[in-house]
Write a structure and sequence with these properties.
Oligomer: single chain
Strand order of the largest sheet: 1-2-3-4-8-7-6-5
Strand content: 35-45%
Number of strands: 8
Largest sheet: 8 strands, antiparallel
Shape: globular
CATH class of the largest domain: Alpha Beta
Number of helices: 3
CATH topology of the largest domain: Nuclear Transport Factor 2, Chain: A
Length: about 160
């Protein structure tokens, strides 16, 4: 009887191991294909970094000079985070938009979001708004030019 139980436990353990291995079978090429679905057409693939539990896949969109980083969990092949950054933009010396204007920009991209914090920051004299928000299970941050309303950075966590 004890031997049957041990064999049964070994079969269960082997099944769990094989199932877990099959789920963790995402490789760099698979991560790149998943990430490609999250970037605009024409984005140029830059690199894939193999981190402990995820792949970080980077693309560049020349038309907008924007860099995209898509983080994908290895064990589920689900997107964990999407970051975009408008390269070469630091903000503005002039502030024309107020907090309500900036919140409206975020809500135009993520309708129904709850705006958490809106903060006007300064770095070497250049100003930018940092906005934190949430929408269901999505949490995000945006950096927005306070003069033009251009989104400088997005960081969206799923």
């Amino acid at each position: 009887m004890r031997e049957k139980i041990m064999r049964g436990l070994l079969v269960i353990a082997a099944t769990v191991f094989v199932s877990a291995t099959a789920l963790a079978a995402l490789d760099e090429a698979g991560a790149r294909e998943i990430a490609r679905q999250w970037v605009p057409e024409g984005a140029v693939y830059l690199s894939t970094k193999d981190e402990i539990d995820e792949y970080e896949v980077e693309f560049l969109v020349h038309e907008t000079n924007s860099k995209y980083q898509i983080d994908i969990y290895k064990n589920t092949a689900m997107v964990a985070e999407v970051k975009t950054k408008l390269r070469g933009e630091r903000g503005s010396l002039t502030v024309k938009l107020n907090e309500s204007d900036v919140a409206a920009i975020v809500l135009s991209e993520f309708p129904g979001s709850q705006i958490g914090q809106v903060k006007l920051e300064s770095d070497d004299g250049y100003r930018k708004y940092e906005v934190k928000f949430a929408n269901g299970s999505i949490r995000g941050e945006m950096e927005i030019n306070p003069e033009t309303g251009v989104i400088l950075e997005r960081d969206i966590k799923y």
